[in-house]
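Sample A.
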Amino acid sequence: MEEIVGKLVGILWSPVMIYFCLGVGLLFSILTRFLQVRLIKDMVVQMFKGSSSKSGVSSFQSLALSLSGRVGTGNIAGTATAIAFGGPGAVFWMWAIAFIGASSAFIESTLAQIYKVKQDGEYRGGPAYYIEKGIGVKWYAVLFSLATLLAIGVLMPGIQSNSIAQGLDNAFGVNTSVTGIGLVILLAVIIFGGVKRIAGVASYVVPFMAVAYILLALVIVGMNIGEIPGVISLIFKSAFGADAAFGGIIGSAIAWGVKRGVYSNEAGQGTGPHHAAAAEVSHPAKQGLVQASSVYIDTLLVCSATAFMILFTGAYNVEKPDGTAIVTNLEGVEAGPAYTQAAIESVIPGFGAGFVAVALFFFAFTTIMAYYYMAETNVAYLLRGKNAKPAIFILKLVLLGVTFYGAVKEAALAWALGDIGLGLMVWLNLIAILILAKPALRTLKDYEAQKKQGLDPVFNSTKLGIKNAEYWEQEYKVDKEENAS
């Protein structure tokens, strides 16, 4: 089983995939004239504008829901794993994919808003919707939808629950089966409450834990402030093969940095658009900009916090692809949350293991919530015009089951299975957004033109010549009047 899984991961995450992710992000950065720099102010302003409605959530709630999917195990365990197998240089490549990936996040999230639909009283959207409506190839849309259900509904929740269980076991000695049962009960209470409850929980939990985590990282950096030049130098030298110890694994640094960066920030992966489509906005570019900012928050803040804590304290091991050790600072410690726990523990004895376990619990738990919402959206897509309630009920049971199973299975297999699901989604979605870049770029140009005129941008798909944007053609004005009354 493990050999088959390993081969599939090798195919999906070949060097071609790594360069494809970087290439698409760089292309969109150029085509949008590096909006991730030019429009940072708009990202922040739009984040706090607008409010929820009967059909959708606010821009901030959509961002929180998106961040609940982005800020998870990848930030703590994934960053540690990238350092373990790619060396300190992997951190630079995580930053690089985040910076250029922000443009990919904008494109896919803007497309989700352009081609969203109002279904059963709620906004629904995502890659399956914009593939069908924008490209006009339904079988491809169905393929993505099925791949997402496999990845998000079956393969990836286990990564999150596994990290929670291992963290609680390491910190408090909680049996993994007990953790699995507890997760299932809490998750059931939330997901049976619908998208509003999921978004509500995420909008409170995610900002609180992210701020607490970053503040702790700042404390540790402050206590080791003299090490800053050395650590920054180590990251950059290792990234380009200039460090004596890590120069021989530059390929691993790039591969692991990009792979864990994409897993963490999800730019171009096709997950973020599901949340973006749920937002109540007057122009698709508004939510596209908000979702682009989530990539920065995830990787440049939370992932960097983990990396700095680990590197400043030296709480890491690094090995070559053949398993030969390069650095062994933590004898017998498996790559993952234990690195971060050891880092905090070395500075604040008796606190590290517990804090990381709690942080992992909240980050990873909210990620599983986000996974459920994405899976539900794809069930709704596949069963449009039919009674989807029985299928959605079965989906809930399956997700609860795999969450429990993930809590008690081996970590290595959990990550590998997740890499298969993620790889499928990334390949399918990146090809789609490359084909559909023109409507998104046209929408960005329209947004900026209206802003220059001093207007609050309002989208008119017909005027822009964008076809099959049925919600904006037929229902937007009706919804606006209903929300105003």
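Sample B, a different protein:
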Amino acid sequence: MPKVTVRYWAAAKAAARVAEEPYEADTLAGALAAVRERHPGELTRVLQRCSFLVDGDPVGTRAHETVRLAEGGTVEVLPPFAGG
């Protein structure tokens, strides 16, 4: 299973209480399930409003189960930001 880094920004970082952490997952859905398991509570609520980048590419409306992760990849967790 690929090892990836999940990076949190803004409200997600505050809720996780870390800037980034490693996970093993083959899809974005798997990585997010592991994040929810490790951080029940506020981060789980924040994730519902987030968008995601995988290796710099926006996930957009793609089903998270279809977004494959690569060894050494990065998942960026981006809550909505105020302003422009």
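Observation for Sample B: DSSP finds three helices and five strands in the chain.
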